[in-house]
Write a structure and sequence with these properties.
This protein is α/β, with parallel strands linked by helices. It has two domains: about 45 residues, no CATH class; about 70 residues, no CATH class. The protein has five helices and five strands, in the order αβαβββαβαα.
Length: about 130
């Protein structure tokens, strides 16, 4: 499976579905509303800066914070009232997602997970 296609399915079928079912448990954190330095790298260009989801949710891909559309809507609503630098939000850390979570949510994605993870590490240049 192509990495971009895997990314979309991973976010929808694992992260969002996992949070909804209580299998993937996010941590609450104060998240900067502005994009970080990683967004301007090849890593950031591949991942993008946001994903479709109506509620506040952030996915932390090795330091790159990818925000849901619900996060952006909440930020824009508050922006008119106060100068917002950070917004409290549930955060799912990519590194905390285990193969067991993936097998439970969508077994077909388990086969390519290790390769996808290696590809992200390569792009991130650890």
């Amino acid at each position: 499976m192509e990495a971009k296609e895997y990314l979309g399915r991973f976010e929808n079928d694992i992260v969002i579905a996992g949070v909804a079912k209580g299998i993937v448990v996010p941590k609450t954190s104060r998240v900067p509303v502005q994009n970080g330095k990683l967004n301007n790298t090849k890593f950031g260009q591949f991942l993008g800066s946001n994903f479709e989801y109506d509620s506040k949710l952030v996915i932390d891909y090795y330091g790159l914070l990818k925000k849901s559309t619900g996060f952006k809507v909440r930020w824009k609503a508050l922006e008119n009232e106060v100068d917002v630098k950070r917004l409290e939000s549930p955060v799912v850390y990519f590194a905390s997602i285990k193969i067991e979570h993936i097998v439970e949510l969508d077994e077909s994605l388990a086969v390519d997970f290790v390769g996808f993870k290696k590809y992200l590490v390569h792009l991130r240049k650890f």
